[in-house]
């Protein structure tokens, strides 16, 4: 059963996207409440080991973000 009020689906797409973004951001305010699956934990561990093995590899987030937003 959906807990989404049906009238939300009558909103214009842009407003529904804005609402979805606001909901997602509210979830991210408490990341400790988000459960990690074993697969996620393993992937994070793999990435951490890769970073430790090659700390100069990759690109800082801010540089990557700027590059992606300029495309």
Explain the overall architecture:
It is built from three helices and no strands. It has two domains: 1-34; 35-71, no CATH class. The radius of gyration is 18 Å and the shape is flat. By secondary structure, the chain is mainly alpha-helical. Helices cover 58% and strands 0% of the residues. The chain starts with 12 loop residues before the first helix and ends with a helix.
Mean pLDDT: 92
- Rg, rounded, reads 18 Å
Q: What gap, in angstroms, lies between the N and C termini?
A: 40 Å
Shape: flat
Proportion in β-strands: under 5%
Order of helices and strands: HHH
Number of helices: 3
- The tally of domains stands at 2
Class by alpha and beta content: mainly alpha
Tell me roughly what share of residues is in helical segments. 55-70%
Number of strands: 0
Low-confidence stretches: none
Q: Please outline the major beta sheet.
A: none
List the keywords.
3 helices, 2 domains, single chain, 71 residues, 58% helix, mainly alpha, flat
Strand and helix layout:
Elements: H1 13-28, H2 38-53, H3 61-69
Describe the structure in brief.
The protein is an all-alpha fold and 71 residues long.
């Amino acid at each position: 059963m959906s807990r989404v009020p049906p009238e939300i689906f009558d909103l214009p797409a842009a407003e529904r996207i804005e609402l979805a973004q606001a909901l997602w951001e509210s979830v991210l305010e408490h990341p400790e409440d988000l459960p990690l699956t074993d697969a996620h934990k393993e992937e994070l561990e793999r990435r951490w080991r890769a970073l430790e093995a090659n700390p100069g590899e990759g690109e800082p987030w801010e540089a990557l973000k700027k590059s992606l937003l300029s495309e």
